[in-house]
Amino acid sequence: MQIGLIGVKFTGKTTLFNSITGAGLPTGQGGVEPHRAIGKVPDPRLDRLTAMFNPRRTVPAQVEWVDIPGFEGGAGADGAREATRFLEHGRRVDALAQVIRCFGGGYGPADPAGELATLALELTLADLQIVENRLEKLTKEKQRMGKVANPLEPPLMERFRAQLEAERPLRDLALNPDEKKIAAGYSFLTQKPLIVVLNHGEDQEPPADVAETARAAGAEVVGLCASIEAELAELAPADAAEFLADLGIAEPAVNRMIRASYHALDLQSFFTVGPDECRAWAVRRGALAPEAAGVIHSDLQRGFIRAETTAYDDLVAAGSLAAAKAANKVRLEGKGYAVQDGDVLEIRFSV
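The structure corresponding to this sequence follows.
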């Protein structure tokens, strides 16, 4: 799972990246290449399972955060080229998190509503360019061959063009499986799940009107103060907890960012346990057991037979797998089973 942090320059994007990954990158340096770091998904259920099984190692689910360089924005060909160049990095991630500056300081007056609208337009124009280029190629293909390879594609691209020309994101369109398969090859920016991060000052609240506009556009919204989060990230856990309590903050930014990412991507976690390893895995909500097995290893999906399944609550209540089996809380599920959040799985397979 990759989440790309995007936005115009000087929004505190890299400060946030550092606070949720511990990367320690210098801020305000610019550049054209993104930075990447792996973040661990905090899950108290995994901690409980680790205490139960005492494994040699514990592996939480992971998120890869990608700090995509900010751009200046603005009108004109140069601004458009700069935005397009940086936003191309966004096509390679699973979801986008736009960081918006809601504080003043030495960067001029804050314009969170303007930043939200500016980037929405940039994403729309970038996608529209791809759609128009594809329609042009499809027209030439039909003229040359008398038909197109996939007759579903031209009307779909026309729908996309109408949606984008109306300045509406492609994620709002309902697509059937065949249309989703076609669209997947283009990695449209406005089709990706969006998280809007309102980075406000220490004694401020995130602007409610901008948050409401973002939610109306289908985005998850997170309000935080990246500078405070950066200070928290440098403290020992006990000191950080005390600092959070003093500030009246319920939990650190990494927790809120990951929860928003899971919700935006419609993900859930399942677990594998044993004396060697207790591990959390992320899988899309509604995934069938073979797909979950494939998250662990492709061989498990290819040779899937059954999933030995225990609900997390049942396992904790029983105290051990042996006790859960004795209480008939362990089930054998087949290929049609939809994995549930918190399931503890052992995959039976043959390759």
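The chain has three domains: 2-42+59-110+193-264, 119-190, 286-349.
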